[in-house]
Structure formats: C-alpha cells, structure tokens
Write a structure and sequence with these properties.
This protein has about 170 residues and is an alpha/beta fold. The protein has five helices and nine strands. The structure holds adenosine monophosphate. The site of adenosine monophosphate has 17 residues, from β2, β7 and α5.
Length: about 170
C-alpha cells in the first residue's frame, strides 16, 4: 500500500482555494497498482460478506465495478440527481455550501441484500452517509463502507453508523 500511496497526487487549491485534492488517477494509469487496489478491496468485501457493491458516482464506479466483478456480486450505481432512467429514490446531504443528493434505482437492492458502499475517498462522510440511507430505505442491509483513501482529520467515519468502515490508505 506504500507504493499505492506514493502514486496518489496532492493537488493544492482544487477545486477551490484551501482544498488539497487527492488525485487517484495515477493509480489508474498503472495496471499493476490498480489490480493491487482491487485485490485489497476484495479481501475486505469478502470479510464483510457483501452480496452487492454500491459505487458512488463517479470515482466509486471506477473502483466499485471491477471489485463487484471479482467478488461475483452485482454492482449498484449511486448517481447524481436526474441521471437514472427508472423509478429511483433520493437521499439529500449537507455540503460545505448548500446541499447535494444521490439517487438509486428502486429495484437495485432490497431485503436479503448485504450492500457494501464503495467510494474513492472518505472526507466529511456526508456522501457515504446518504448512500447508506438509500440502501437501508430500500430494505437492504449495509455490509460496510469501504474507501481507497480516508482523510482521518475530517472524522467522516463518525457519521457512518451501524456498519464497519474500512479504508486502504489514511492521511
Ligand atoms: P464527503 O461527503 O465530504 O465525505 O466527500 C466525499 C466525496 O467527495 C467523495 O466522492 C470524494 O471523491 C470527494 N472528495 C472530497 N474531498 C476530496 C479531496 N480532498 N480529494 C479528492 N476527492 C474528494
């Protein structure tokens, strides 16, 4: 994981002043590193006995979809509002300025499913908390929350209750 961590680039003042953006795209350019990340996520997904992977748009798709295929589990895209074509449910969460929402198809998961929520990065936890709400409102169980990167100083995991939280790399 040290080699993976070294690939993650700090981009100061993106998308706005004061934010240090963690750019994971160098991992994607390195097929060995990308495969190592998928295998590390897979070990955790198995330990959590996940039956489905829910990826948060859009970098949660990049890591979540190959993970779901390796696990032999279905993949659920959690999308920005207005993108999903069929009957969907929505969860709204607070952002630094104003609010945002994510949506999930109504039939994507339900009772009997153990859904692992996956994203590239845990910051304040608002996005992942909303993802967990969507899964639970659909009647499924949240098997856990899984991230490639966690920004520990923002304490996002305190928002993620009722299921284990894992991250491969912490800052
Ligand atoms: P949050 O809801 O605050 O936990 O933010 C998580 C979402 O915002 C994830 O989808 C991340 O990809 C993105 N994000 C937040 N902060 C950063 C950051 N410093 N670098 C890269 N992505 C970030």
């Amino acid at each position: 994981m040290q080699r993976i961590k070294a690939l993650i680039a700090d981009v100061p003042d993106f998308p706005k002043p004061g934010i240090i953006f963690k750019d994971i795209t160098p991992i994607l350019l390195d097929p060995q590193a990308a495969a190592a990340v998928t295998e590390a996520l897979l070990a955790i997904a198995r330990a959590r006995q996940a039956t489905k992977i829910a990826g948060i748009e859009s970098r949660g798709f990049i890591f979540g979809a190959p993970l779901a295929q390796r696990l032999g589990a279905g993949f659920v895209p959690l999308r920005k509002p207005g993108k999903l074509p069929r009957k969907s449910r929505r969860a709204t969460f607070a952002k630094e300025y104003g609010e945002d929402s994510i949506e999930m198809h109504d039939d994507a998961c339900g009772p009997g499913d153990r859904v692992l929520v996956v994203d590239d990065l845990l910051a304040t936890g608002g996005t992942a908390e909303a993802a967990g709400r969507l899964v639970r409102e659909a009647g499924a169980e949240v098997a856990g929350f899984l991230f490639v990167v966690e920004l520990k100083f923002l304490d996002g995991r305190q928002k993620l209750t009722g299921a284990p939280v894992d991250a491969l790399i912490a800052y």
